[in-house]
Amino acid sequence: QIRLMESGGGSVQSGGSLTLSCAASGFAYNDYCMGWFRQTPGKWREGVAFVNADGTSTYADSVKGRFTISRDNDNRTMSLRLNNVKPEDTAIYYCAADHMGTNMFSPLEYNYWGQGTQVTVSS
To answer: What tens digit of pLDDT does each residue of 46-89 get?
Structure first.
């Protein structure tokens, strides 16, 4: 059974830090591009950060320099470190895997999703 499970969400003050984790099982994790998306009510699911099977990473401009994505292939986990968070980072954060397409920022091009974890940043 394919499964992605996020953890680490919570409430944090503006300027603070938080680390999200995603645990994967049921598929060939090491071969897949993995990513983090976020979504707020009434808005499109936004691509945040991505890490390829070879460890190379890509970030949305809105989080570049503040967020860091990493993966541990031995433990089949992926993390997103959020530094210097802002109120506009408040969202449900989703882990995604199995990118099939040409635009890694498109949520339509991922086959596997976690259930999401809430991040709330207060000013």
So the answer is: 999 999 988 899 999 999 999 999 999 999 999 999 999 999 99
Rounded distance between C-alpha atoms, residue 19 and residue 7, angstroms: 9
Residue pair 80/94 in contact by the 8 Å Cβ criterion: no
Query: What's the rounded mean pLDDT across residues 12-22?
Result: 98
What is the rounded CA–CA span in Å between residue 9 and residue 90? 10
Phi/psi at 88 (nearest 5 deg)? -70, -5
Q: Please name which of 82, 59, 62, 60 lies closest in space to residue 6, comparing C-alpha atoms.
A: 82
Rounded CA-CA distance 85/76 in Å is 26
Distance CA 5, CA 117 (A): 9
Identity at 104, one-letter amino acid code: M
Beta strand segments in the chain, E: 3-7, 10-13, 18-25, 34-39, 46-51, 57-59, 67-72, 77-82, 91-99, 110-113, 117-122
